[in-house]
Specification:
The complex is a heterodimer of chains A (507) and B (210). Chain A is α/β, with parallel strands linked by helices. Chain A is 34% helix and 19% strand. In chain A, 54% of the residues are buried. Chain B is an all-alpha fold. Helix content of chain B is 38%, strand content 2%. Chain B has a two-stranded antiparallel sheet with strand order 1-2. The longest helix of chain B has 16 residues. Chain B starts with a helix and ends in a 48-residue tail after the last helix. Chains A and B meet through helix 1 and helix 6 of A and helix 1 and helix 6 of B.
């Protein structure tokens, strides 16, 4: 009886305290490092490991519960004159690669930095091979330069991330997961003195550091920024890699007075998605083939062999009505793809020559799921109805195209005759393709040493950018001829940022 | 008689602002005879300050917290933290790991303790193997990432993928070298399939080995 009275009083006490006491307030934890890195992808890790190799204490903050971001998914990285290329008699030189990249971007980029990256690229391959990463040289498309260093064994970048993480761990690099960087902090002389981050419990983590490297991977998953900088609305351009890359590094830099450049640049790809379709299914691979494409007006608009430079295919859709296009084929072409295999790969995930034996199942799954992007019809009239295209114009286009196929020359857009496959037998198919956004290419304007610059070209002391947070490498297009460019540029700018941040903090 | 005074005292402190509350309760406050609550092997122990000599958060004997929280959860069904953990003059409670917190945060902690005691989540499974909070966590409150602890006992992804699996696609063999274990294997709530956030078609679980 008496004991229960006590219990009652204790409960009353609890109630009073619960009302009077404030809820658990978030704390500020202060940590100290020589260099803080924001973002633990291949750029951030390369910066962290490089600085730690030089003796710096490095703390990396990462928004996701894992390292690597989209580098885990990148298939391979660019390099010229690597030991591996030499070993395989692959003759691509640094000079050639540099000139091609500059020509293709019309020199509207940071030429000295691109030169520095390309010059560093062979050493970076050796650096990573020294950590146990294995590569396999390759070209992206027929006749393309073999600058691509595919990451073995699965042509996914995960082993690069793993190797850098393990090397970082040995060197004492500390990674704080689920702790996004929020704000740069400066001393009274406007020099960087650290970064504020926030952990998953809401605590503020203040990292006092003499230099900060921003490497958060750009802004593909931030629809407002995508619309603001690229002019594409969220319903026109689909972010295909859901890794929560929301432009944190670029926004922090802008807030600190940094200038940005090349912000409209994107790596996109054309593809069919929607209910019933798995990513990189066999039907998706059909949208990478260089056969007949038409737009919403039922007209051809390009040499469909643009698919070999996949990001050109993605970007070209953005120029068309409703930002869509249709891949049109018939049963004969379907049979060809099932029996003979593809004429172009979807990267190395569905390699070229893959026999698309699952096309029929994919079509069935999509149709059963009422996927509006997959259309099957018994006639061109019926197909045009499903596409919402004027039947006469579509028929006119197909008749004209079949004529080019018969005579073996594409009078329209001069496509390689090997890819002229007529549309006339059996059932007809249309796949509505959308531009899929993989990564953004614009970012902070920097010096050749990756130091962030203001609009007046003043260096912001102690602030560095790397990877997709760094602008000035790609102009407004991704140059597919510099195959493996973004992955390689991430690791190489990360190394350059790490080296220079190290020099800066040792001053 | 004594208890009456204590009740009066509790009423008085309950009415005071929290900053003036002083720790007052011990095991003895509710259990005048410790002999009645301690196991036979502990006959003769009367000073509860000695419990922690053996039952440390890390040590050979089971953590006192595991024993005390378990028994109170079994008897009462829920934890009333403030029955034992009283705030000091600043309104904060000091826990055995040295963390300091307030009663509101402790109330949230009680939910986790209940889950550990009696849920279908991983915390209960660990309790059944005699593990206590501090076996995975640095402290009771916040900020620590227990995923490294998972790896210390269970092995990393390389080791996990070597184990036999009943699925064709081994979810431990993913793109991500160091995805935190706790992203899928939540300690205190239900399992969450992280693969499905990008592969929303039952990627890992559709293809059972025949």
């Amino acid at each position: 009886m008496k004991r229960s009275t006590i219990a009652l009083f204790v409960l009353a006490l609890c109630a009073v305290l619960a009302v009077a006491g404030t809820p658990a307030a978030a704390e500020t934890k202060i940590m100290t490092a020589d260099i803080a890195v924001v973002g633990c992808g291949s750029a951030g890790l390369a910066a962290a490991v490089t600085a730690a190799e030089g003796g710096a204490k490095v703390i990396v903050v990462e928004k996701l519960p894992m390292a690597g971001g989209s580098s885990n998914l990148a298939e391979g990285m660019f390099a010229a004159e690597s030991s591996l290329q030499k070993k395989n008699y692959i003759p691509v030189t640094k000079d050639e690669a540099f000139k091609r990249h500059m020509d293709n971007t019309q020199w509207r980029i940071n030429a000295p930095l691109v030169r520095a990256i390309i010059d560093k690229s062979p050493d970076t391959i050796d650096w990573l091979m020294g950590m146990g990463v294995e590569f396999e040289p390759a070209a992206l498309f027929p006749g393309g330069a073999q600058t691509w260093h595919l990451v073995k064994p699965h042509y996914h970048g995960a082993p690069v991330v793993k190797a850098l993480l393990e090397r970082g761990k040995k060197l004492g690099v500390q990674v704080l997961y689920e702790t996004p960087g929020k704000k740069l902090i400066f001393d009274d002389k406007k020099r960087v003195k650290g970064v504020l981050a926030q952990d998953s419990k809401g605590n503020v983590i203040q990292i006092n550091a003499k230099a900060v490297v921003l490497a958060t991977g750009g802004f593909p998953n931030n629809p407002e920024m995508v619309q603001k900088y690229t002019g594409n609305a969220p319903n026109e351009l689909f972010a295909a890699v859901p890794l929560n890359k929301t432009g944190d590094g670029i926004s922090m830099a802008i807030e600190a007075g940094a200038a940005v450049e090349g912000m409209a640049g994107m790596m996109t790809v054309a593809g069919v998605v929607g209910p019933g379709l798995k990513p990189f299914c066999h039907l998706f691979a059909v949208t990478a083939q260089p056969y007949l494409w038409v737009n919403q007006d039922g007209e051809r608009f390009c040499d469909e062999a643009v698919v070999y430079r996949f990001t050109v295919a993605g970007n070209i859709l953005l120029t068309q009505k409703n930002k869509v296009a249709y891949a049109i084929f018939d049963d004969a072409t379907k049979k060809y793809l099932i029996e003979n295999g593809t004429d172009n790969g979807s990267g190395k995930i569905i390699p070229v020559t893959t026999k698309l034996t699952n096309i029929d199942n994919d079509i069935k799954d999509a149709v059963n799921a009422n996927n509006p992007n997959v259309m099957v019809a018994n006639s061109i009239d019926e197909l045009s109805g499903k596409m919402g295209v004027d039947p006469a114009r579509l028929k006119g286009t197909i008749t004209q195209y079949n004529g080019y196929c018969d005579k073996g020359h594409d009078d329209g857009f001069a496509k390689d005759p090997r890819y002229l496959r007529p549309v006339k037998q059996g059932k007809f198919y249309a796949l509505r393709m959308n531009p899929l956004l993989l990564i953004t290419l614009g970012g902070v304007k920097t010096t050749v040493l990756t130091e962030a610059l203001t609009a007046n070209n003043q260096i912001i002391p102690g602030l560095y950018a790397a990877g997709n947070d760094l602008g000035g490498l790609h102009a407004e297009v991704y140059d597919a001829e510099t195959t493996g460019g973004t992955f390689s540029f991430a690791v190489n700018t990360g190394r350059i940022a790490g080296e220079n941040a190290l020099k800066y903090v040792k001053k | 008689m004594k208890l009456k005074y204590l009740s009066l005292f509790v009423v008085v402190i309950a009415l005071l602002p929290p900053a003036k509350v002083v720790a007052a309760l011990t095991c003895g406050s509710c259990h005048p005879s410790l002999t009645k609550v301690l196991p036979a092997s502990h006959k003769g122990y009367q000073n509860t300050a000695l419990c922690l000599v053996c039952h440390k958060t890390k040590g050979k004997a089971l953590a006192l917290g595991k024993k005390v929280h378990t028994i109170h959860l079994e008897k009462q069904g829920k934890l009333d933290c403030a029955s034992c953990h009283q705030p000091d003059s600043t309104g904060k409670v000091t826990l055995s790991t040295g963390d300091r917190t307030d009663l509101a945060a402790m109330k949230a902690l009680a939910v986790t303790f209940s889950s550990w005691h009696n849920s279908t989540s991983l915390d209960r499974a660990h309790k059944e193997r005699d593990l206590y909070c501090t076996d995975c966590h640095q402290n009771y409150l916040n900020g620590d990432d227990s995923a490294d602890r998972c790896v210390a006992c269970h092995g990393d992804y390389d080791e996990m993928t070597k184990r036999p699996s009943s699925y064709e696609k081994n979810p431990h063999k993913s793109h991500f070298a160091d995805l935190r274990c706790t992203v899928c294997h939540k300690g205190h709530t239900a399992f969450k399939d992280s693969c499905s956030s990008c592969h929303p078609f039952g990627y890992a679980w559709t293809y059972k080995k025949k």
